[in-house]
């Protein structure tokens, strides 16, 4: 079943643009389809005006957002996936966590590899396990363990307690994105990132 409504939307500059809004139920999926006429909204500045269709699809698997011109060109696509309990999945970003030369991923299939993820609710999570390359070159108080992109770093330095071969230890995440060991004693074998989670600055 579909419901079609014609709507006139007013823009900030006082002009208007006509839109068609259509709501559709297709099987177990719900779609909200909006056709917007003669606009450059989803396109880069300088493009000639285009008609485009924005489709938001809701289902048990997630929320998909597509912005497509009438000739089929995709200008924007966003996908939010849900897990089996209906919670939004975080966006995994494996490559942007740069490990210091003193440590490497723990390896093997038992423990999670070091990773960085961001979620739609604004949280950044660091997880996984690393090991020291050389026990004779340990992590000492003040050692940098890894670095994340500065734009994901907290607005103010934050302190966390994580596991290590010498027991629970303190690590700090600084405003420049560095993850710094600030415990007491030297870590000679391994240290975990799991337990580091904070709100990243919002645009």
Q: Structural class, from helix and strand content?
A: mainly beta
* Spatial sequence of strands, sheet with the most strands: 1-2-3-4-5-6
Q: Helical region count?
A: 0
Judging from the principal axes of the Cα atoms, what is the shape?
elongated
Query: What fraction of the residues are assigned to beta strands by DSSP?
Result: over 45%
SSE pattern, N- to C-terminal:
EEEEEEEEEEEEEEEEEE
Q: CATH superfamily membership of the largest domain, which one? A: Phage tail base-plate Siphoviridae RBP, head domain
Instruction: Tell how many strands the DSSP assignment holds.
Output: 18
Poorly predicted sequence stretches spanning 5 or more consecutive residues = 1-16, 40-49
Overall CATH class of the largest domain = Mainly Beta
Radius of gyration based on Cα positions: 24 Å
Could you describe the largest sheet, including whether it forms a barrel?
A: 6 strands, antiparallel
Q: Average pLDDT, to the nearest integer?
A: 76
Distance between the termini: 38 Å
Estimate nothing, just give the exact number of structural domains: 2
- Do you know the CATH topology of the largest domain? Immunoglobulin-like
Q: How much helical structure, as a percent, in the residues?
A: under 10%
């Amino acid at each position: 079943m579909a419901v079609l409504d014609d709507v006139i939307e007013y823009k900030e500059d006082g002009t208007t643009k006509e839109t068609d809004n259509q709501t559709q139920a297709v099987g177990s999926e719900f779609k909200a389809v909006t056709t917007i006429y003669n606009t450059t909204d989803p396109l880069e500045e300088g493009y000639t005006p285009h008609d485009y269709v924005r489709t938001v699809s809701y289902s048990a698997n997630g929320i998909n957002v597509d912005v497509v011109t009438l000739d089929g060109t995709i200008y924007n696509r966003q996908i939010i996936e849900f897990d089996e309990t209906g919670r939004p999945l975080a966006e995994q970003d494996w490559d942007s966590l740069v490990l210091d030369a003193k440590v490497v991923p723990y390896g093997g299939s038992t423990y999670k590899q070091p990773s960085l993820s961001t979620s739609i609710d604004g949280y950044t999570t660091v997880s996984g396990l690393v090991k020291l390359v050389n026990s004779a070159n340990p992590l000492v108080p003040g050692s940098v363990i890894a670095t994340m992109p500065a734009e994901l770093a907290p607005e103010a330095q934050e302190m966390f307690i994580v596991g290590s071969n010498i027991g629970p230890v303190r690590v700090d995440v600084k405003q420049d994105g560095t993850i710094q060991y600030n415990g007491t004693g030297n870590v000679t074998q391994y240290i975990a990132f799991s337990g580091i989670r904070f709100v990243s600055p919002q645009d």
